[in-house]
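Lab notebook, bench 4. The sequencing result for the construct came back, and we need a structural model before the next group meeting so we can plan mutations. Quick request posted to the team channel:

Model the 3D structure of this chain.
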Amino acid sequence: MNKKTFIFDLDGVIVDTAKYHFLAWQNLAKQIGVNFTHEDNEQLKGVSRVQSLELILGWGNKTATEEEKERWLHQKNEEYLAFINKMDESEILPDVERVLQFLKLNNQNVVLGSASKNARPILEKVNIMHYFDAIVDGNDVSKAKPDPEVFLVGAAKVNAINKNCIVFEDSVAGIQAANSAKMTSIGIGEQNVLNEAEYCFIDFTKISNEFLLEQIKN
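Done. Here's the predicted structure in token form:
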């Protein structure tokens, strides 16, 4: 059996922590007098915490000192951490665990490639850490997607070559990162949004074991 490397993003692919980011950002935006909607939140997907705050301040035409920004970033993260602290297995998105089990059963590399600095605690909370051969999170990389750094580091950790890597992503920036790394990109979400992906599925329930076998054999 060929050995391929399957790289998973975290937020919106394995678990939906995006809703907790949204609530924490919304609460902060309200506090500094900025209206923050679900549409605004979409624009923060795959964007670092620091950049996200800059965008929110820009939308509200607000200025802030470095000290205020530091305090707000810390506050947002603390609130987010309080939300994820209550997570359990029920937060794993449908059929993700079936796919992880299938890949491990077929002796494939499974890697996490996420911008989140909280990736490890989340994987522990939802009890799927044991599936991963390597984890790359926001603590390991300095460049945000669409820069492919997170996926390149993930591939290197398991000695994989790029063309043998398959990436699951829910953001446009993540798909662009996978494509620029010359990896197979699989979008998880709306086809019209993730139209740069090589394949697109609304969620993992639509990804059959046969499709995964094809990816392994290709």
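The mean pLDDT is 95.
Will bring this to the meeting.
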